[in-house]
Design a protein that fits this description.
Bound molecules: ligand C2E, calcium ion
Oligomer: single chain
Number of strands: 15
Radius of gyration: 25 Å
Number of domains: 2
Strand content: 15-25%
CATH class of the largest domain: Alpha Beta
Shape: elongated
Number of helices: 15
Order of helices and strands: EHEHEHEHEHHEEEHHEHHEHEHEHEHEEH
Helix content: 40-55%
Length: about 400
């Protein structure tokens, strides 16, 4: 507990005194109390994951809901515990709102506070920090903008293997953020922030350049993989994208038919005119197009037929556990049939265990991607990994 820093916010002096005494008894290293939201928010360190705020819901100057919204907007990465005398439903909706803001909301405590419950919650934050570090952290726009000038974004690569032969066919590049204090952070922390603030295109371009550079290194080491990149619709609203991509691929001597652009199904309808122009040109240059997260939106078949896609990636929601979930199973089966009827390659995402593998293999899916094969890894590990995987697969 001595590493934790807890800030208590309540407009009642008595509650502050009692809570402070409890926290001292638990051995919490740093304790601060505040009677007003404004002074508390000033004192918070937004980037300290070990800081926890215990926040009253009913306060005169700024209520708890406003405090939570503010913390969400500022990307507070510590823990939040709601204190209240309100009923359970109100508490639940506040907790849900906090989570929707990507806050690490640990839960709600009734007043008067019960020592054991408070202790359990603090233990919980310690556990959540070591188990799933900073999963719910959002980068701030400033951090993102600054990071894009210093190569903070790096691609990790997740293999895709042939369902029948096990051969490593390609990799998908997945963005990671190298954070000075927090280490490697996943895309949930920054892709949406980038999309909302016109930073997704520079991010995509960096991902592409770095991935092409890595492809060249792999190829020089003797392996020839297809390279899938996630492209946001925002970047496709730019007519110059195909020319830029071609020039960049040529700079690293990467054949264009090794490239696959993954587009999320739910975004396909946005600005269809520009998009189909850009997609058609990519296709004419032999760059392949893939529909990502298939099954999660109500795809319209017409569009799938009109746009020049050559690959369909079935969302992991319909893959993992499909052998014992009739709903997933049916979507999986029909998606594969649809793809085959349109001459598209199928990739199953989220294959986590042998039953998943067997199930998608039985349906005739072409490629497999998932934790059962491998988690995403840094580019310099791919060659050795592929050798080991293929040797093990033959056994
Ligand atoms: P996605 O394109 O659907 O990528 C697959 C995600 O599923 C990856 O998460 C991957 O690590 C995860 N995954 C792979 N196998 C399994 C499995 O067996 N089980 C489970 N539970 N998960 C698995 P990740 O890397 O966190 O990426 C999340 C999403 O962020 C991606 O989903 C993609 O939509 C977005 N993203 C990642 N990199 C980029 C990028 O460079 N640009 C854009 N625009 N979006 C990106
Ligand atoms: Ca993808
Ligand atoms: Ca996907």
């Amino acid at each position: 507990m001595k590493h934790l820093s807890v800030l208590v916010l309540d407009d009642d002096d008595f509650i502050l005194d009692v809570t402070q005494a409890m926290l001292e008894n638990m051995g919490v290293g740093h304790i601060e109390t505040h009677l007003s939201a404004r002074s508390a928010l000033k004192a918070l360190d937004m980037s300290n994951p070990l800081q926890i705020i215990l926040c009253d819901l009913n306060m005169p100057d700024m209520d708890g809901v406003e405090v939570i919204r503010y913390l969400g907007q500022q990307g507070f990465i510590g823990g939040v515990v709601v204190l209240s005398g309100e009923d359970i439903r109100t508490q639940h909706s506040v907790v849900a709102m906090g989570r929707a803001h990507h806050l690490n909301l640990l839960g709600a405590l009734n007043k008067p506070i019960n020592t054991d419950e408070l202790l359990a919650m603090l233990e919980n934050i310690k556990a959540s920090i070591s188990k799933k570090p900073y999963a719910l952290t959002l980068l701030s726009v400033d951090e993102l903008r600054a990071g894009l000038t210093t190569d903070a974004v790096v691609p990790y690569f997740q293999p895709q293997v042939d369902t029948l032969t096990g051969k490593v066919i390609g990799v998908e590049a997945l963005a990671r953020w190298q954070h000075k204090q927090l280490g490697i952070i996943g895309p949930a922390a920054f892709i949406a922030v980038a999309e909302d603030n016109d930073l997704i295109t520079p991010l995509t371009y960096q991902m592409i350049t770095q991935s092409l550079k890595q492809w060249r290194i792999w190829n020089d080491e003797g392996i020839d993989l297809s390279l899938s990149i996630n492209v946001s619709m925002h970047s496709l609203n730019d007519f110059s994208f195909p020319d830029w991509l071609v020039a960049e691929a040529q700079a690293f001597a990467v054949p264009l038919d090794r490239l696959v652009m993954e587009l999320t199904e739910s975004h396909l309808s946005d600005n269809i005119l520009v998009t189909s122009d850009v997609l058609t040109r990519l296709c004419l240059k032999r760059i392949r197009l893939s529909v990502d997260d298939f099954g999660t939106a109500y795809s319209n078949m017409e569009k799938l037929q009109q746009l020049p896609f050559s690959e369909l990636k079935i969302d992991r929601a319909f893959v993992h556990g499909a052998d014992h979930n009739p709903h997933s199973h049916s979507i999986l089966k029909h998606s594969i049939e649809l793809a085959k009827s349109l001459n598209m390659i199928t990739v199953a995402e989220g294959v986590e265990d042998q039953p998943d593998w067997d199930c998608v293999a039985k349906q005739g899916c072409d490629l497999i991607q998932g934790y059962f094969v491998s988690r995403p890894m840094p580019g310099d590990q791919i060659v050795q990994w592929a050798k080991n995987w293929e040797a093990d697969f033959k056994k």
